[in-house]
Amino acid sequence: MENHTKxxxxxxxxxxxxxxDYLIKYRAKELFKSIRSDRNIIDVDAWKQMDDETLxxxxxxxxLILMGGxxxxxxxxxxxYPLVDDVSTIKVPICMMGVGWKSLNGDWADTQNYPxxxxxxxxxxxxxxxxxxxxxxxxxxxxxxxxxxxxKVIMTGCPATYVEDKFTTSxxxxxxxxxxxxxxxxxxxxxxxxxxxxxxxxxxxxEYFGEKCNFEVVFHHSTKNKFLNTHNATxxxxxxxxxxxxxxxxxxxxxxxxxxxxxxxxxxxxxxDLHIGYRVHAHIxxxxxxxxxxxxxxxxRGKALRSVFGGVVIDAFQYxxxxxxxxxxxxxxxxxxxxxxxxxxVELMNILEYEIDLNFPVISSTRQKINHNFNMMKYFIKxxx
Length: 385
Hints:
With 385 residues, the chain is an alpha/beta fold. Helix content is 40%, strand content 16%. The strands form 4 sheets. The chain has a 6-stranded parallel sheet, sandwiched between helices. The chain has a 4-stranded parallel sheet with strand order 2-1-3-4, sandwiched between helices.
């Protein structure tokens, strides 16, 4: 870590492998540079237990900011942010930026009785008493916190949504589609139904775009052994990805691994004309640079995004059985609990053709809403000490 003579914030970030996590951090730093040039940023790995040196650096800062991702979950502390055993030893105010909830079903009703551990609630209450605004990335997360009497919270959207020099660039209504990136989700690792769905959609799209276009399947998580060194990664994750690659190769479908950095994600999707797929940050990125995207929502992160800036978001499933027994059966790979619409691939193709035939009436509407949401992000960042 470096020392700064200028006042600074400490941000806790979670980028290890997933390209989307790197993009959050990358874009957040750009926002601070633009809106709060009076502050420097010190970036600390969120998953590491704080040592005395880190705590000293934090306590010399203006604020500690818990950054991005689906971090608001039952054991946010200590699973996502270990922090310190005694939070009172953190002497500066704490807040969150662009944090989202984590829900498999993702229904609005799930925001109304959202379980959080005592340790997590303790840290949230500490933030409440510190008095800074916190920012969240969707209205579902906002409702979770408001129902818990978390008073100072703003729906700003994800930091990754904002590229200021694209605010005046309209999403083109006349698109010559040459390159399509299809982002692969993660639910296929635990659900045969979701895996079958993804494979059917990939085959349909590959056939639809044919030889005239460059169609590729995009992995946001690493397909190499380094995947096992990341949080929550197991041999099951890696073997699942490698099995999917074998299927792609068998069907002569191209693929690419963009894990490990924001630059990989930015470079790849900047070269695409259209994104279709399951990764929230592929969808966010394409909209952020005024390009075309269709998101297939495989959990609450994607579903919640629909009301943030609109666009085309298709639910990948009808519901997921999520009781105790269902969770055990899913973990044991006996039954996934996903109720999947067998015609989702037909629905996707209908929407895709509708958008293309009518010059993207729904997709092109997102730019205005993103620009509007940016006002709330600016308000949040300017409110920081």
